[in-house]
Design a protein that fits this description.
The structure is a homodimer.
Chain A: H1 19-24, H2 26-39, H3 47-55, H4 62-73, H5 80-104, E1 108-109, E2 112-113, H6 115-119, H7 121-142, H8 145-168, H9 176-201, H10 206-233, H11 236-239, H12 245-248, H13 254-262, H14 265-276, H15 284-294, H16 297-315, H17 323-337
Antiparallel strand pairs in A: 1-2
Helix pairs in contact in A: 2-5, 3-7, 4-5, 4-9, 5-7, 5-8, 5-9, 8-9, 9-10, 10-16, 13-16, 16-17
Keywords (chains A, B): Magnesium, Metal-binding, Transferase
GO biological process, one term (chains A, B): isoprenoid biosynthetic process
Protein name (chains A, B): Octaprenyl diphosphate synthase
Chain lengths: 340, 340
């Protein structure tokens, strides 16, 4: 089942892909990738392997792309600063994935076996710490205290988000507000910081920093909500993971929050058994999808994502038309159109 | 110009008024009103007059109604506790209005001359403080530490919201996120607290408290956004103030945030002149409305409000069907349908 997303009124989404954005920052991203490779090196055995395992496994590198694009949007003239901050952002992201897998006891990540399975939990935690350390060293090299402030604050907020999620974990009675607070911290904060350091590097005034931050924050929320919907309705190809992973891991995401609240007592008992107690039986994923469909939980998750997408779009409205701005707006459509 | 709000898909809004809600809590509200009158008394000259001036001037008393209704929704059996907390909530609201008028240098409130014009700024500030004090005394009499915690935290957040607004005031480059943070604190927090103390009094478990809090918070945001839209498009009758008041006071509300960002340089110069510099000339309000229309700023403000309304609706989905639940859901429709 795909999630049926009605076309947004009057706004053709024909070209909702990331190609323009990727092409615009291709030179910078080549340098980011070189930097990433050179900074995963260490004399200490195992660290380079563990770090490279996940880094080499692909992923869209959306966050560093956003850093470069937002710097470009604000007229930043291609020094090494944006490249190093973009690489820092990707290291921060990779570090949280390594730590996440340990916390969630995940076996798979990006279609391959998780680092913690191959090298153990300790190595995964420490390789994550190593990458975080490298990220901070690169930020210091760039020498912008404001950018350091933004990215180190994000690191703290992300950690807080993880802890919030631990507390909320497996609680089917989580409210939508509580869930939003978690994904704001866990996911959207890094998107926001990745975007905000662009105008900071370009030494642009506060309204442009606030605009990029707001764009990133709301794009990040929309991105996560669509991921949540895809986990129950997409194909593995567009998802980078398997349909039903969230369900099997007992993750409380927005579709579940909505369906649980809207459901009958029998349905709530089903969610408690499968997600809270982890007693999943054959056919339960199909039942889950049927219940989600019954309550329009996936459609309404996409509808909520669309709201945040609209906010991200308006955040950039301050900037004059440019190819970079157009590509950043297209990235919003891309995020939401994934749910087609 | 009315704001044209398309009917929400499949959800008839024929009976979008507050009558059911008002009728359900009519007995309780009669006692709240008696309590309010008895607690505005003071030996000190002027305090009763200043306090009563605003209290007697009407207003929907939506916040204490929500306290009573949420207590009722959670099976609270009509003691004096809910009545006293409801009166406290209304006193907190009245105190912030008295203080607001001083901060904003407003001349009118609820269609009559503001207390500060009649008795001076000092008396308005101090009468507000008196009401806040009385609110806390009533809360203490109720004896629920949890309710005291919720309402006193709200008082702090509201004050923070006022200060945030001072900082953001007259800044046409305010982002939507920044504006939302202000109205969350200034307006929605008291709605949230008013609702949350209901299940607290009824000694219901945390999920019901969180649900009522979330309902109140999102209803409060939707309520404020519709108020913002009505200020440029409604009739004075439904608004309780005159169309264009926000404009004349240079208030940056969501319609302005959207139109400013979406507008041309000429239009931005217009908003800076009128709102930031306060140089308003004849015909400017009409121009403002034309620009807002050009960018669909009012329609999209209502669209945003609808998103928060949907969140408020889902927050209550946990509760079984009851007349009180139905009336609380109707209150959401009422809030949004005001923009018709």
């Amino acid at each position: 089942m795909g999630v049926v997303v009605p076309m947004e009124k009057g706004r053709p989404q024909a070209e909702a892909d990331l190609n323009d954005l990727v092409a615009l920052v291709a030179d910078g991203m080549a340098r980011v990738n070189t930097t990433i490779l050179s900074r995963t090196g260490s004399e200490v055995t195992m660290i380079p392997e563990v770090a490279s395992h996940l880094i080499a496994s692909g992923g869209k590198r959306l966050r560093p792309i956003l850093t470069l694009a937002c710097a470009d949007l604000c007229g930043y003239q291609g020094g090494e600063g944006a490249v190093k901050l973009a690489a820092s952002v990707e290291f921060m992201h990779t570090a949280t994935l390594l730590h996440d897998d340990v916390v969630d006891e995940s076996d798979m990540r990006r279609g391959q076996v998780a680092a913690r399975i191959k090298w153990g939990n300790e190595a995964s935690v420490l390789a994550g710490d190593f990458l975080l350390g490298q990220a901070f060293r690169m930020m210091v090299e760039v020498g912008s205290l404001r950018a350091l402030d933004i990215l180190s604050a994000a690191a703290t907020v992300i950690a807080e988000g993880e802890v919030m999620q631990l507390t909320a974990a497996k609680n089917t009675e989580t409210t939508e507000d509580e869930y939003l607070a978690v994904i704001r911290a866990k996911t959207a904060e890094l998107f926001a910081a990745a975007c905000e350091v662009g105008p900071v590097l370009a030494e642009r005034p506060r309204p442009e920093q606030a605009a990029c931050r707001s764009y990133g924050m709301n794009l990040g929320i929309a991105f996560q909500l669509i991921d949540d919907a895809l986990d129950y309705g997409g194909s593995s190809a567009e998802l980078g993971k398997n349909v039903g992973d969230d369900f099997r891991e007992g993750k409380i995401t927005l579709p579940i929050v909505l369906a649980f609240r809207r459901g009958s007592e029998d349905e709530r008992a089903f969610w408690r058994r499968t997600l809270q107690e982890g007693a999943i039986e054959d056919g339960d994923l199909e039942t889950a999808r049927t219940i989600l469909r019954r309550h329009r939980a996936l459609e309404d998750t996409v509808e909520r994502a669309r709201h945040y997408g609209a906010m991200a779009r308006d955040a950039l409205a301050l900037f004059p038309q440019s190819p970079t701005k157009a590509a950043l707006l297209q990235a919003i459509d891309f995020c939401i159109a994934r749910a087609h």
